[in-house]
Amino acid sequence: MTELAIELRNVTVTYQTPKGEIPALEDIQLKVTPGEFVALVGPSGCGKSTILSLIAGLFEPTYGEVFVKGEQSGRHQCRIGYMLQQDFLLPWRTVLDNANLGLELQKDRGKETLVEDLLKTYGLEKFLHHHPTELSGGMRQRVALVRTLAVDPDIFLLDEPFSALDYQTRTTIQEEVWQALKSRRKTTVLVTHDVGEAVAMSDRVIVLTSRPAKVKRDLTIEFGKEHPGPWQARKSKGFVDYVDLIWDELREYVDRETPAGKGET
Fold first, then answer.
1. Nearest to residue 211, comparing CAs of 54, 51, 78?
2. pLDDT for res 256
3. Measured by CB atoms within 10 angstroms of the end CB, which terminus of the chain is less buried, N or C?
4. Per-position DSSP letters for the chain, written without gaps between them
5. Which pLDDT value is given to residue 263?
6. Average pLDDT over residues 258-265
7. Could you tell me the sign of the dihedral formed by the alpha carbons of 106, 110, 116, 122, in that order?
8. Per-residue CA distances from 140 to 91, 162, 192, 246, 255 (Å)
9. Contact, 102 vs 146, CB < 8 A?
10. What is the distance in angstroms between the CA of the first residue and the CA of the last residue of the chain?
């Protein structure tokens, strides 16, 4: 039996506030196998990012257990990479220095050549000594990707890392990130509001209900023997059917939030 990369067992999270308890997650069951790419979609504020925080070991659930590679979250030895909507590049550091930051924090000197090679791979060889303010949004996210890849994490957590980018840049970065993670067989959990993005990038899509979130649907995404990558997936037979199926699962929650039943989840 293959050891799971991530497992949430009967996870419930309740936040304590001055106004009382706020239920965020209820009895979440989730299993992710090594090398799998899983997306979480659901209504706004349902607790998708809370699940990432639990996996990262930032806090413990109110009830239930979270395991990473068979060890309780927060007590394991594996490395976890976290990419957010904001790139969090330090404005006073150059591209090269920002990309080396994770290695510096881990006192892992000696991979500077690897970092430079990665920056060249993603078209940043001419910008090594530029500062973040001199870069486009897509270039900044590429630097953030290199910074995370350099420390060689076992698990990647992606919290809407493409949402601030324009459509053309977003589709390009999606492809680059997917290729980087799949070629390295990294276990990945993506939180996104973009249903098309979830279908195009993932092996499975987990649909969550409104808060307190429960798993409403666990949908395997298949485009043939091998995933063709996000760009080709969008052109594949069945892509629109998957998107429509997930939207049908989410529609009742969107209707509650917007009178016309339109808008993002």
1. 51
2. 57
3. N
4. -PPPSEEEEEEEEEEEETTEEEEEEEEEEEEE-TT-EEEEE-STTSSHHHHHHHHHTSS--SEEEEEETTEETTS----EEEEESS----TTS-HHHHHTHHHHHTT-TT-HHHHHHHHHHTT-GGGTT--GGGS-HHHHHHHHHHHHHHT--SEEEEESTTTTS-HHHHHHHHHHHHHHHHHTT-EEEEE-S-HHHHHHH-SEEEEE-SSSB-EEEEEE--SSSS---HHHHHTSTTHHHHHHHHHHHHHHHHHHHSTTS-S--
5. 38
6. 38
7. negative
8. 11, 11, 19, 31, 36
9. no
10. 36
Residue 188 and residue 21: Cα distance in Å, rounded? 31
Please classify residue 74 by burial: count the beta carbons closer than 10 Å to its beta carbon, then call 0-12 exposed, 13-18 middle and 19+ buried. Answer: middle
Span 104-140, pLDDT tens digits: 877 766 667 889 999 999 999 999 999 999 999 999 9
The total of other beta-carbon atoms located within 10 Å of residue 34's CB is 15
Please name each of the domains of the chain with its CATH number. Answer: 6-78+157-255 (3.40.50.300), 88-153 (no CATH)
Mean pLDDT for 200-210 is: 96
Nearest to 133 by CA among 91, 172, 95: 91
Tokens of residue 228, six digits:
């063709």
